[in-house]
Amino acid sequence: MQGFDVDVVVVGAGFAGLNAAARIVAAGRSVCVVEARDRVGGRTKPGTLSGHVVDLGGQWVGPDHRRLIALAARHRIPLEPQFEAGGKLIDYRGRVRRYEGLIPALPLLALLETDRVMKRIERMAAAIAVSAPWAAAGAADLDRITVAGWLDRNLRTKGAKAMMDIAVRAVFSAEPSEISMLFLLTYLRASGGLEPLISVRGGAQQDRVKGGLHPLSERLADEVGRGRLRLSSPVSGIEQDGDGVTVHVSGGEALRGRRAILAVPLALLSRIGAQPAWPALKTGLAQRSPMGSVIKCHVAYETPFWRARGLSGEAVSDAAPFSPVFDGTPEGARHGVLSGFLEGDAARTFTGKPPAERRQAVIATLTRLFGPEAGQPIDYVDNDWLEEEWSGGCYAGLMAPATMTSYGPALRTPAGRVHFAGTETALEATGYVEGALESGERAATEALRALS
Amino acid sequence: MQGFDVDVVVVGAGFAGLNAAARIVAAGRSVCVVEARDRVGGRTKPGTLSGHVVDLGGQWVGPDHRRLIALAARHRIPLEPQFEAGGKLIDYRGRVRRYEGLIPALPLLALLETDRVMKRIERMAAAIAVSAPWAAAGAADLDRITVAGWLDRNLRTKGAKAMMDIAVRAVFSAEPSEISMLFLLTYLRASGGLEPLISVRGGAQQDRVKGGLHPLSERLADEVGRGRLRLSSPVSGIEQDGDGVTVHVSGGEALRGRRAILAVPLALLSRIGAQPAWPALKTGLAQRSPMGSVIKCHVAYETPFWRARGLSGEAVSDAAPFSPVFDGTPEGARHGVLSGFLEGDAARTFTGKPPAERRQAVIATLTRLFGPEAGQPIDYVDNDWLEEEWSGGCYAGLMAPATMTSYGPALRTPAGRVHFAGTETALEATGYVEGALESGERAATEALRALS
């Protein structure tokens, strides 16, 4: 038996790992956080645009994100509302139209059907328990088909299909053909439904953190204590024995703890050799948890010219690659910013391409949506999450059909003395920073209980 | 610039890697094969049952498997026919029935529909080019849905649904809900259709290798040259520069080659750190290539008692976990063997369980199918491929919807100086040992061309 360096070794310094570590420190136990990157924050990341900090990753805060709101409040960092005054734009079947409210202007039948299917999906999601979606009534049937297959079966109008495709891409950074219907419903349920997820006011895009969301991970790291963090330390293996866990860091160093918390996306689990091997169902789940595909882009203009024309900056397209778009102007800035995403197939088309090519495609979409003024940007920045080695994609891990029913029960199950965190394992706001915080809390509770 | 240890470093000593290495040696170039396991053979593996060698992994040889047949002939190892004389059994809706031919005895409507849907699937598969299935007519639609979703839409009778479920499980070691319809068609196309894949005579189960298929990998390793093999050497990273490739082996050693061939399942790609990082579409594909789920089991009896009753030993079930079953009796043996599989959900139910529990479930199925004599085995052996760290499952990597159209073009694309082999990348007999051999040939050709 060897001695212990700490009570708990946490792998991963995103919001999940940091929150777990902060909880463990607060409980009077010792902790060390090991992180592959040279920075904290995981899937949040700061960038610079026209001299201001922008979020290249996670950005928005919803009114239900109570842990995230409390973290900002604790550090006296104010939230600012997402700008949403004015009309929205939709590029649909070759024409750009203006609309108000949640659902775009569509032919009447398409409008009625969109409304009906959204209500139906809300009802279906409400019947799912996030803690055990595989036990829901009809779970097997819902997990046999893709969202695309379900929509094909249940929608008649092209308009409603286009709307649902747009919504799914925006929420999951994936095509409707990539994910299981049961997974979609479970994910929606964890955030209170579809409407909150695609809404600004009252929804997941309601607020931003002044100065960017990323710096909150720095504050959380301060709470943990900088001396307890080891950056630039990829973990190569985890060994367990009767007493504890040895976490091997690339380069040869090893840390020994009584317990470990793994707070990395499941898609990266196989990078970490395990002795004894990870349980087969955990490995199978990791093989079946691909990350979403997204490139986040910000474009700066001399002024937020769309506001002067009564537009909110919010826009979606059924064909152009850059969708959805939001007003990303920092409060108090003189310049204007449009922020948005290349998602699913669009992200896969543009990953690995030169940034100039991406920029051109993004500006072309904005020009199509907002007119020639959008063709005169003063700055541009983007981040290709598909190329981030230590995320493997964003926003979150996805589940294709059959994964949730066959492997879901392995999601939060510890492997011996190793506990699992990460937004994918969250019961609330899965896929969001709030979910990451919640999962860290839960994993810390598990580890602390085991220590006592 | 450093010197080179060899022209080509091959990672993985399954049939794909060994065949690539043999080709490179035959071309007068130098090679080194690095293998994580302490043995060659990959997804083939020898076991012992009643004093005879049995295949715990890949086992059968079809008449189209010309490379595999040539390899056996080269080493004067005879093939023996899979025993198939007599009636077959189907356990369907609670009753065990006997039948002859390819399609079991079913109610007339179910029989007609099974015949019709199989012919339809054969026609659909025939329209696919294996080299670029994503370019086939209707590819996007076929890749939007699972096989389960397609069957639900296109079948009315319970009997035909049960038959297709049984066939899909047997061919893919997966549930129909796990895989994309386009993937299924492509896989069938690479082996000439569905009927050859589920047939004994004239199909993929026609022959076995006397003494087991696994030893052929030993002969192939002899062809490569034992001095060129490094067993028990997991690869931790691959670095590329302007001149060549450095393959880092766990423990610190490194091998330098002008080119490398990676002949491991894509599901294991993320275990191998890369500098520069793997291209994003390769990583995305690797995240979306889960391995099938299968536990292979052999049961020995005093005699092949089913033969005396005019049964071939072939049996399937729509409910019991152990299906399909074949006569696995070695030619010339006095005892009898029934060999079969726990596949898909059944494999996931029994992985991690004590072998005695698996044995009990297997014997119970056999007793249900073949009567009380099946309850008196004299020996039992199984292999849980879900727990094999260096395979991650079997028989092969699978694709859920949207994977083939979004990531398929990355399948065989080299990453700089690294080429990709493995049965998943094969254009012929994908998923089989024959496909592994073909993929090794193709990767060797690529590497040799680049060297010349």
TrEMBL record, chains A, B:
Coiled coil: none annotated. One of its GO terms (molecular function) is oxidoreductase activity. FAD binds at residues 35-36, 235, 424. Residues 15-447 form the Amine oxidase domain. Substrate binds at residue 341. Keywords: Oxidoreductase. The keyword Oxidoreductase applies. The keyword Transferase does not apply. Its cofactor is FAD. Pfam families: Amino_oxidase. Belongs to the flavin monoamine oxidase family. This is Amine oxidase domain-containing protein. The lineage of its organism: Bacteria, Pseudomonadati, Pseudomonadota, Alphaproteobacteria, Rhodospirillales.
